[in-house]
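Researcher: We plan to redesign the surface later, but first we want a full-length starting point. Tokens attached.
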């Protein structure tokens, strides 16, 4: 069986991501975490999509449960409805 060939690749990341990756690097988990995440996204992995969509739904639920967002309207449309509609557009 042929060994997997890994090729270095540079990306620009937000500073907070780099700080978190450095924490993972201490336990030698950073590279595999990044490889797994990128692979899941590029392959359209079901678990990634399901988790992503679940997170979006949780955000929508949180907005809909907010007493403040459900009381404020702009141009006749509740802010909660507007935000929920925008988040639904992100569904994969």
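Model: Full-length starting sequence:
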């Amino acid at each position: 069986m042929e060994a997997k060939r890994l090729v270095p690749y540079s990306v620009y990341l937000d500073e907070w991501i780099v700080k978190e990756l450095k924490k993972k690097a201490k336990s030698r988990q950073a590279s595999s975490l990044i490889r797994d995440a990128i692979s899941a996204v590029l392959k359209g992995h079901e678990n990634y999509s399901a988790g992503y969509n679940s997170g979006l739904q949780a955000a929508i639920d949180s907005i809909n449960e907010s007493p403040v967002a459900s009381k404020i309207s702009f141009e006749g449309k509740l802010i909660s409805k507007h935000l929920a509609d925008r988040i639904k557009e992100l569904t994969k």
